[in-house]
Structure formats: structure tokens, C-alpha cells
Amino acid sequence: MTLKTILHSFIILIAVIILLQTDYLKNFIWAATDLFVDFKIPLEWLKCHSLGVNLLTLEALKCGDRAVSQFNYGYIFLSLPYNEFLDSIYRNYVPWILIVLMIFLSTFTINPKNNIEFVVLYLSFLNPSSMLLVERMQLDALFYLTILLTTYHRVFFITWLLGVIFSLIKFYPVAILATVFLEDKKRNLKNILIILSSLLFLIFLYMFINWEGYSFMLNNMLPGKAGYHFLFSLNGLAKIFNYLLEIKYQFFLLITYLFFFYLLKKMISKNYSLYKTLKLEVYQPNSNIFVISGYFLVFLFIFVSSYAYKEIYLILLLPFILSFQRKYPNNIFFKNLIKLIILRYAFLFIYGFFNVHDGISFVNGERVFTYYFLIVIFIKSILDWILMLMIFSILFLKSKIIFTDKILKKI
């Protein structure tokens, strides 16, 4: 940590605060009427629960004279402590604390050394996708910090407990439990399986005991999926071709998935020479963060239609990518990866602008997009594909290294 790093952390923080307080940001994201709205809605659920209101219903929810949106978190969320004093703390201070921690801890972890790396740092936080998460303050900010902190303490039980709790709020944070493979390089496969089995047993036991809450969540969860706007998903191209050619979406979805995994297999084979070099970097803090956040991205990019703010986990890949490039400056793959990251972050400003300003119109009851918008989201989807192919190929090789290492250890 250097004075220069601290200075840049403050500059980014000031820039974020200014953007959140001005209308300029509205040119690139759909800003809500209220700051941190996605953080405040769950507080209303906690308030309703404290008043004895049944949240497990499809009927309109009202807490006193105030309407509240449908509950769509895991039931364990309602176990959080709540009263009027805590509500004030949650509402007025916690979002800002999360922002400060995200910026400072990320900057210290990335630890940029040259101008290119500082450009990557600034773009990673100030691009529209990251600012969308900060402006809405999604729960992903908390997941993000948890991943970041997993490699900076040795109290493994804390990480396991948070992984269990977060998995019971939103299912995909179960990827945090991958830390069981990473946190202790001497831990053999037998012990890993015992720990994982125990943690998964706790998750399923809690779901079984509170089955009414989780049955409601599984059967009635609000979609919460991105359509054509602010989309971060493998299915982006399928949506575009479905709109243009009016052929069944499921057909394009199958083709795009098959093609993506075909390309992924090709990329892994082409870059298998990285295996030996990556093996030298295994079990390092930056490498561990890369693996855990990489599995988050696997779920969010491949299996759901994620909103663009889920791209925040890409920032957690940067410490390993940049440090690897410093150590192996002649590696063409990582050189091109960094160039792609910069290009994509820069393009997000164009992408965000057209998302906000293209508008949504209807002809004969059907939604119509301009060709400018379709071109922009097509380019975004292509950039997403290339970036995820490169990242997932590294993730596959690193996972193989770790798993092979654990198998070779005596059980």
C-alpha cells in the first residue's frame, strides 16, 4: 500500500460521490428516484416482518399505509436484527460504508503500478455497469466484499458461515464455499469433502426446516431478469437473433450455448501452454479471489439473464490478471486480455448511453428497437462472449490445477 494508491482511492471515491449527487449519471444508467433503492426495499421487508405482516403471499403487501413490493429473498434474511435504530443505521450509513470499503479494499488489492493499470482501475469503478450497482446498492456489494476478504483472514469458519447465510438469501453465493479448496493448500480432498458436506447439510437442513419460505421463493420468485437492456448474459445474442429473425428463442438459445462451449473448448486447448505457468501461481491470494469470483460469473453469465451490475465481479479478477501480466510481461494471452478489458469498459459508456436514450416504442402492441440500439447491444454481447471465453478458459485451467493437486494429496 502506497500513498499514491491511497490518493487514487480517494479520487475514485470523490468521483463516485459526485456522480451519485448529479444528473450526469442519468445519461448512462436508469437512475432510480431514490438513492440506494435496492438496498432500502429489503429494509421494508424487515420492517413488515417485525410488525407481524406475512410476507409469504402474492397479495399486495402493506405495512401500515405503505405498499411494499413482493418478498423475493431467502427466508433467512428475515432473521436479521431489526428495530427503528438499526433501520436508521442500515438506511443512512451502511450503503456508504460498503462503497468506501469496496473502493479502498479493491484499490489496495489491485495495487496498480503503471498508467495502464490505473486506467483499468478507474474504468472498472466509474463505468455505467459498476455505477448502476452503486446507485441501486444491490446485495451483490456485500457478496463482493465477502469474496475480497476471504483471502485476508485465517478464520475460515467466518467465511464458511457467510457462504451458508448468503446462499440461503440468494443461491449463487454458494460459490463462496469454493474457498474450502483454496484457503489451506495442505488440506486434502477427504477433509474438503467433509467440510463441504457439512456446510451443504446445514444449507439443506435450514431450507427443510423453513420449507414454507423457500417453497414460496422457488415457486413465486419475481423474474428479476434483464431483457434487452443492461444485459450481462450468454443469451444476449439469442435474444437479438430472436428479435430480428422471429424464430423461436429456444432454438437460438440452444445454438448459442453449443457454440459458446465449443469455442471455450477450443480456447482451452489453444492456450493449454498456460497450465504450467498458472500452476506456479496457485494458492496465492489474488489467484484465490479470481477463482471464487470466476465461479460467481459462471453462474451469472451462463445460467441467468443477469443485469449489468452483476459485472461488478469482473473487478475481482483484476488483481490476478494485472499481477500475472507484471510477472510475465511477454505473455500474449494476458496482454490481449487487458486490452480487451479496457476496450470493453470504455464501450460500456456508449452502451449505457443508448440503453438510456434509445427509448422503448411499440407498433401494433409489439416492442420495437432502433437499429442503433441493436448494433450497440450486439457489439456488447460479442465483447462479453470474448471476455468470458478468455476468463473461463483460465478458470478451467486453474480449477484443474487445484483439483488435481487435492487428488494427489494422500487422503
Give structural notes.
By secondary structure, the chain is mostly helical. The chain has one domain. Helix content is 66%, strand content 4%. The chain is built from 18 helices and 6 strands. The chain has a two-stranded antiparallel ribbon with strand order 1-2. α10 (189-209) crosses α11. The longest helix has 38 residues, at 371-408. It starts with a helix and ends with a helix. The model has no long low-confidence stretch (mean pLDDT 91).
Features:
single chain, 411 residues, mainly alpha, 18 helices, 66% helix
Topology diagram in text:
Layout: H1 3-21, H2 37-50, E1 61-63, E2 66-68, H3 84-92, H4 94-110, H5 115-126, H6 128-136, H7 140-150, H8 156-169, H9 179-182, H10 189-209, H11 211-220, E3 231-232, H12 236-245, H13 249-270, H14 274-279, H15 285-303, E4 306-307, H16 318-327, H17 332-357, E5 361-363, E6 366-368, H18 371-408
Antiparallel strand pairs: 1-2, 3-4, 5-6
Helix pairs in contact: 1-4, 4-7, 5-17, 8-10, 10-11, 12-13, 13-18, 15-16, 15-18, 16-17, 17-18
Sheet/helix structural class: mainly alpha
Question: Order of strands in the sheet with the most strands?
Answer: 1-2
Helix fraction, binned, reads 55-70%
- Parts with pLDDT < 50 across at least 5 consecutive residues: none
Main sheet overview: 2 strands, antiparallel
